[in-house]
Design a protein that fits this description.
mainly beta; 2 helices; 6-stranded mixed sheet; 4-stranded antiparallel sheet; globular; Neuraminidase; single chain
């Protein structure tokens, strides 16, 4: 059962009226974009570039995990004018990824409880008309995908920390009708355990993200068996070895789990994946490495290019060499792909969802300006002296291409410099155009809707 604290516990800046929160904010660039939670409010915009990276070790590495506070009584996240949030559910052990079935049901990975939940909402409401445990006895489930893509899937795929399984499914099922079938097994599960999955638009490819087994490959070894030269000739660009072999990658399989291959390397922890509706491109949000200072390196969201290397563990944000691997891989200098959208260091992006809206009536859903943009859930920092993250942000796109800007959308989860009541994890767009958000601080799920002008 969720516990509520006095609403007076919230600082005054979080109790401001929606209109005040929504006033036009200047675009923060460079070091001005490196603020903390006290500067967060709906409408605040940031643009961070690779040129803005400070040198490593300018600040000490902080250990500053947030204390978890009770949710203040009657608290709701802060949103731009015209938007409102209603709670769908509370008291869930560990709500993480949320995905929307073609019929509109919400599938939620309750990761630490090792189960998959389903919520069916009443029409135009955050109140569940039905809810159920779809499957139990999983192993830290996280990613969820329906197959084949479209309106009549036959399977629900679930990414455990160490495997991908699937359950037979027909539209409207609230409980699995049979045992899980293992599609991909023997996925390394230590350290970063959040495995996300997504299908290509044509349904022919199943993507899997596998995060690294360490912060920066401390135990990988200086060279692979057989020597570096032979390894480079036989493996994808930037592939790691030893304890990190097959990690910090995005992989691809046939829907039956066969024909596995590496799509891209050097993504330290792609904890959230999705396919961009406008282009069909696969996107990742990535947690970068720790212990280089408050603002190094930036977190990011990026389209995932076939055969690309994104730097980990030797480089970051392009050609910035990690000092802990200085001189180790000169052959990779200049070969790391620069990500598309950079975000504040240590924000911990966990999931991403595009707001398509093409099938929505003109008088429903979010305003037209939101269509084609993406929402990212930032779980919040621990390796930063001044806390950042703990919010949902909006990535700006124009004609299907990212502008590099991102904007605070859903804030108000931080109580003080030492405590938070909410830690956003999952984002998904419901069939009616509402945004669904999970947070695992107090174990709640929210439905965000819009009632203002859509012009």
């Amino acid at each position: 059962m969720i516990r509520y604290a006095s609403f007076a516990a919230l600082p005054a800046c979080l109790l401001m009226a929606g209109a005040a929160l929504a006033a036009d904010q200047p675009l923060l660039k460079g070091s001005e974009a490196f603020g903390d939670w006290r500067a967060d409010r709906p409408g605040v915009r940031r643009l961070i570039t690779p040129q803005d990276l400070p040198k490593p070790y300018v600040t000490k590495s902080a250990s500053n995990s947030a204390g978890l506070a009770d949710m203040p009584a009657d608290a709701k996240p802060q949103l731009p004018p015209g938007f409102s949030a209603e709670m769908i559910a509370s008291g869930i052990d560990n709500p993480r990824v949320v995905r929307v079935a073609p019929n509109g049901d919400l599938f939620v990975a309750d990761s630490e409880a090792n189960q998959l939940r389903v919520y069916r909402l009443a029409q135009d409401s955050a109140k569940p008309s039905e809810k159920s445990i779809f499957a139990r006895d999983l192993n830290q489930p996280y990613g969820i995908a329906f197959y084949p893509p479209g309106n009549d899937p036959k399977w629900v795929y679930v990414a455990n920390s160490d495997s991908i399984v699937r359950f037979a499914y027909k539209s409207g099922d609230l409980k699995a009708s049979g045992d899980p079938q293992t599609i991909v097994g023997n996925i390394p599960a230590n350290h970063h355990w959040t495995r996300d999955i997504a299908f290509s638009p044509d349904g022919k490819t199943l993507y899997l993200s596998v995060g690294s087994g360490s912060n920066v490959a401390e135990d990988m070894g200086k060279a692979p068996d057989g020597g570096l030269e032979a390894w480079v000739k036989s493996k994808p660009l930037g592939a790691s070895w030893g304890s990190e072999e097959g990690r910090a990658d995005v992989k691809a399989f046939d829907p039956d789990g066969k024909n596995g291959r590496i799509v891209a390397t050097g993504l330290r922890n792609c904890s959230g994946m999705t396919v961009q509706p406008a282009t069909g491109a696969l996107w990742c949000v990535v947690n970068e490495r720790d212990a280089l200072g408050d603002n190094v390196p930036f977190e990011y969201a990026t389209s995932v290019k076939e055969g690309a290397f994104y730097g980990w563990p030797w480089y970051y944000i392009g050609n910035h060499e990690d000092p802990r691997h200085k001189g180790a891989r000169p052959d990779l200098a200049g070969k790391a792909t620069i990500p598309d959208v950079l975000m504040q260091a240590h924000s911990a992006p966990l999931n991403i969802a595009f707001y398509d809206g093409k099938d929505l009536p003109a008088d429903s859903g979010f305003p037209k300006a939101y269509r084609g943009d993406a929402f990212v859930a930032l779980h919040g920092s621990w390796n930063r002296a001044n806390r950042t993250g703990y919010k949902v942000v909006r990535l700006k796109f124009e004609d299907g291409k990212p502008t590099g800007e991102y904007e605070d959308f859903m804030t108000g989860f931080v109580v003080s410099s030492g405590e938070v009541w909410g830690r956003p994890v999952g984002v998904a767009v419901a069939k009616d155009g509402a945004l669904i958000v999970t947070e695992d601080g107090n174990g709640t799920i929210w439905r965000v809707t819009y009632s203002g002008s859509r012009s």
